[in-house]
Amino acid sequence: MLLVQSTGSDEALRLNASNEKLSTDNKEIAGMDNKGNGSADTKNPVENGQLPDPAHWAVSDVVNYFKAAGFDEQACAFQDQEIDGKSLLLMTRNDVLTGLSIKLGPALKMYEYHVKPLQTQHLKKNTW
């Protein structure tokens, strides 16, 4: 079982692939505990303790990922712009901040705590 553990609004989500329960601050839940600031506790399928490679995500997968991360309002921008996993991996900081017409605060969090780590994860998995 995978738990995505929120470590606060200023840090990236961390994956916990163990079967141990988290503290009440980071509880196990069936869906999503949206904290309204871009951090969330949620369960997702994993490969080797990490999310599946975003290069294989459809547009709906990208939208669902950001909804699960607490960006319900902003996730529709990825749908409107038809951003699939491959497109997500090609996005620059500027693309997220200006190309999606999202408010600056959420856009910064989405890029720094989600897009950039997904890009890094993809590069690490595909350079070996």
UniProtKB/TrEMBL annotation:
<dbReference type="InterPro" id="IPR001660">
    <property type="entry name" value="SAM"/>
</dbReference>
<protein>
    <submittedName>
        <fullName>Sterile alpha motif domain-containing protein 13</fullName>
    </submittedName>
</protein>
<dbReference type="InterPro" id="IPR050548">
    <property type="entry name" value="PcG_chromatin_remod_factors"/>
</dbReference>
<dbReference type="GO" id="GO:0042393">
    <property type="term" value="F:histone binding"/>
</dbReference>
<dbReference type="GO" id="GO:0003682">
    <property type="term" value="F:chromatin binding"/>
</dbReference>
<dbReference type="GO" id="GO:0045892">
    <property type="term" value="P:negative regulation of DNA-templated transcription"/>
</dbReference>
<feature type="domain" description="SAM">
    <location>
        <begin position="57"/>
        <end position="105"/>
    </location>
</feature>
<dbReference type="InterPro" id="IPR013761">
    <property type="entry name" value="SAM/pointed_sf"/>
</dbReference>
<dbReference type="GO" id="GO:0005634">
    <property type="term" value="C:nucleus"/>
</dbReference>
<feature type="compositionally biased region" description="Polar residues">
    <location>
        <begin position="36"/>
        <end position="47"/>
    </location>
</feature>
<feature type="region of interest" description="Disordered">
    <location>
        <begin position="14"/>
        <end position="52"/>
    </location>
</feature>
<dbReference type="Pfam" id="PF00536">
    <property type="entry name" value="SAM_1"/>
</dbReference>
